[in-house]
Design a protein that fits this description.
single chain, four-stranded mixed β-sheet, 14 helices, 32% helix, binds guanosine-5'-diphosphate, binds 6-O-phosphoryl inosine monophosphate, binds magnesium ion
Length: 468
C-alpha cells in the first residue's frame, strides 16, 4: 500500500509543459489524490458532505489552501488517527501546516479566529495564515441580530448557526461593514465603532427588543487587541493567490456550506448568506475564472443531510432515519444539532453540477449505507404530473415535488473490507456498491474519481489507479 505522498519522482510522468497545468500520473497508488495547479472542493448538497476530510487529503500535495466564502458557520472535520480537528474559520490545510489564506469573501469573527489558532497551538500546530484586508468582520451585534431575527421569524425561522454571518454580509451589502483593514488600525476601528455601535444598539433595542450586554469601550478594547494580534497576518490574498498560480504553485480552494444553501440558487430563504459555489471563488479571492477552472471536485455524500429548516424532498423519518443518523454520526459540527437525513437526490445534484461545473465527484460516507437492505436514489421529481429532472427554482414548486426513486440492492463495507479497499482500491468494492455509484456517474455524466469510506485520512480510495 502506498499512502498519501509516499510516491517518488520516478513514479511520475508529467503531462503538459506549462507548470500551471501540471498533471501527475501516478503509476501504482490507489490512495494518492491528484492535485493540479488549482483544485476546488465544493459542497454539492446542504453542507457537511465531508469537505474537510477531502481538503485534508488533497492538502498534502498542495502549497496553499484558501477559504473564500462563509464564516465560522462552517464546521469542517479532519480526523488524523486519534486526533479530531473541527475547523470553523481556518482553512483545513492548517492541519498539514500549509500556507493558509482567508480571502475577502469570508466573514471573519476574530474572537473565533483566536480560539481556533490557540486551540491548534495546544495541539502543536503553528498556523501560517494570511488574511485579506477586505474581509468583513463579525461584530458582537451581528450575533444579537442573528438571534433576534430568528426569534422574530418564530416558526418560519431559518435555523441559522447564530454565528452572525448573515448580518455581517448584510453590512457589506449596505456598505457599513467593518473590514479587517479597520480592525488592525485603532483610529479606523474607533471611527467605525462611533457609527456602528450606537446605530446597532438602537436597532437591537428598539426593533428586536434585545439588549446589549457590552459597552462600546469594551468592544473597542477587545477588538483592537485582536487587531493588534492579527495585524502581521494582513495579506493581499488576491495578489498572493494570483502570483502563486502564475508560478505554477498548487492552490487548493476550500468551499464551505453546500450548493443548495446558495444565497440565490439554494432553497431561499432557507439558505446561507454567501455563495458556496465554484464561481464565488473568483469574487471571494479576487481572481479570474480562467485561472481556477481546471479541477472542480463536487463532494457528494452518499445520501443527503440537512441541518436547519427548509425543503428536503427525499427526507426520511422513523427507524430508517435514526439508523442513518447514528451510523453517519449526523450531528452538526458547529451547533451539535441532529441533522435531518434522506436519500440521495439527483435533481439536486444535477442543479449543483450545472452551477459548479464539476470535473469530477468524490463520494463520501459510502460506508454509512453499509447494512441497509434496500437503497433508494431519487432520479426525478413529479410535480403536478410533470417530470422534473432538475431542482425547481422555487420552494413552492419543491413543496409539491414527489420524488421518483430507483432501487438498489444494499452492500456491506465492514472493517475487513475497508482494509482491502485501502490496499486494492476501488476494484475491491462490493458489486452492489459499484452499481450504486455507476448509476450516479451515468446520470450526472461526471466521473466519480474518489470514494471515501471512513472518517480517517486514509479511508479513501480512487477509481482510476493511474491518476489517483
Ligand atoms: P464538512 O462540513 O463538509 O467538512 O463535513 P463535516 O465535517 O461537517 O461532516 C462530515 C462528518 O463525516 C465528519 O464527522 C467527518 O469526520 C465524517 N466523515 C467524512 N468522510 C467520511 C466517510 O467517508 N465515512 C464516515 N463514516 N465518516 C466520514
Ligand atoms: P459546512 O461548511 C451545514 C446552514 C444553517 C442554516 C442555514 C443558514 O460545515 O458544510 P447561517 O448561520 O449560515 O446563516 O445559517 O445554513 N448552514 C450549514 N449547514 N453545513 C454548513 O457548513 C452550514 N453553514 C450554514 O444550519 O440552515
Ligand atoms: Mg460541516
Amino acid at each position: 500500500m502506498i499512502g498519501f505522498g509516499e510516491h517518488t519522482a520516478e513514479d511520475r510522468g508529467v503531462a503538459g509543459s506549462n507548470p500551471a497545468s501540471l498533471i501527475l500520473f501516478l503509476n501504482s497508488s490507489h490512495l494518492i489524490l491528484k492535485v493540479m495547479s488549482s483544485t476546488m472542493v465544493i459542497g454539492s448538497q446542504f453542507g457537511d458532505e465531508g469537505k474537510g476530510k477531502l481538503v485534508d487529503c488533497l492538502a498534502e500535495q498542495s502549497d496553499y489552501v484558501v477559504r473564500y466564502q462563509g464564516g465560522n458557520n462552517a464546521g469542517h472535520t479532519v480526523v488524523v488517527k486519534d486526533k479530531v480537528f473541527k475547523l470553523h474559520l481556518l482553512p483545513s490545510g492548517v492541519v498539514r501546516k500549509k500556507r493558509s489564506l482567508i480571502g475577502t469573501g469570508v466573514s471573519l469573527d476574530p474572537r473565533v479566529l483566536k480560539q481556533e489558532i490557540d486551540g491548534l497551538k495546544e495541539k502543536g500546530i503553528k498556523v501560517n495564515l494570511g488574511i485579506d484586508p477586505r474581509c468583513q468582520i463579525i461584530m458582537p451585534w451581528h450575533n444579537v441580530i442573528d438571534i433576534g431575527k430568528e426569534e422574530a421569524l418564530k416558526e418560519k425561522n431559518i435555523g441559522t448557526t447564530r454565528r452572525g454571518v448573515g448580518p455581517c454580509y448584510a453590512d457589506r451589502a449596505s456598505r457599513i461593514g467593518i473590514r479587517f483593514d479597520d480592525l488592525v488600525d485603532e483610529k479606523r476601528l474607533k471611527e467605525k465603532l462611533d457609527f456602528n455601535y450606537p446605530y446597532y444598539k438602537n436597532v437591537c433595542e428598539k426593533i428586536l427588543n434585545k439588549h446589549f450586554d457590552f459597552t462600546q469601550e469594551e468592544v473597542f478594547k477587545q477588538y483592537s487587541a485582536l487587531g493588534k494580534e492579527f495585524k502581521e497576518m494582513l495579506t493581499d490574498v488576491s495578489l498572493e493567490v494570483n502570483e502563486c498560480l502564475d508560478k505554477g504553485k498548487k492552490v487548493l480552494f476550500e468551499g464551505a456550506q453546500g450548493t443548495l444553501l446558495d444565497n440565490d440558487f439554494g432553497t431561499y430563504p432557507f439558505v446561507t448568506s454567501s455563495h458556496p459555489t465554484s464561481g464565488a471563488a473568483t469574487t471571494g479571492i479576487g481572481i479570474s475564472p480562467q485561472k481556477i477552472s481546471e479541477r472542480i471536485i463536487g463532494i457528494v455524500k452518499a445520501y443527503t443531510t440537512r441541518v436547519g429548516s427548509g425543503p428536503f424532498p427525499t427526507e426520511i423519518s422513523g427507524e430508517e432515519a435514526d439508523f442513518l443518523r447514528n451510523a453517519g454520526n449526523e450531528f452538526g459540527t458547529t451547533t451539535g444539532r441532529a441533522r435531518r437525513v434522506g436519500w440521495l437526490d439527483l435533481p439536486m445534484l444535477r442543479m449543483s453540477n450545472r452551477l459548479n461545473g464539476f470535473t469530477e465527484i468524490a463520494i463520501t460516507k459510502l460506508d454509512v449505507l453499509s447494512g441497509i437492505k434496500k437503497l433508494l436514489i431519487a432520479d426525478y421529481y413529479l410535480i403536478e404530473g410533470k417530470k422534473f429532472f432538475d431542482f425547481p427554482y422555487a420552494n413552492h414548486l419543491v413543496a409539491k415535488a414527489v420524488p421518483h426513486y430507483s432501487e438498489f440492492k444494499g452492500f456491506s463495507i465492514n472493517k475487513e473490507q475497508q482494509k482491502e479497499l485501502k490496499e486494492k482500491g476501488y476494484s475491491a468494492l462490493d458489486e452492489h456498491a459499484k452499481k450504486y455509484l455507476e448509476f450516479i456517474e451515468k446520470e450526472l455524466n461526471v466521473p466519480i474519481k474518489t470514494v471515501s469510506f471512513g472518517a480517517e485520512r486514509d479511508d479513501t480510495c480512487s477509481k482510476d489507479s493511474k491518476i489517483c
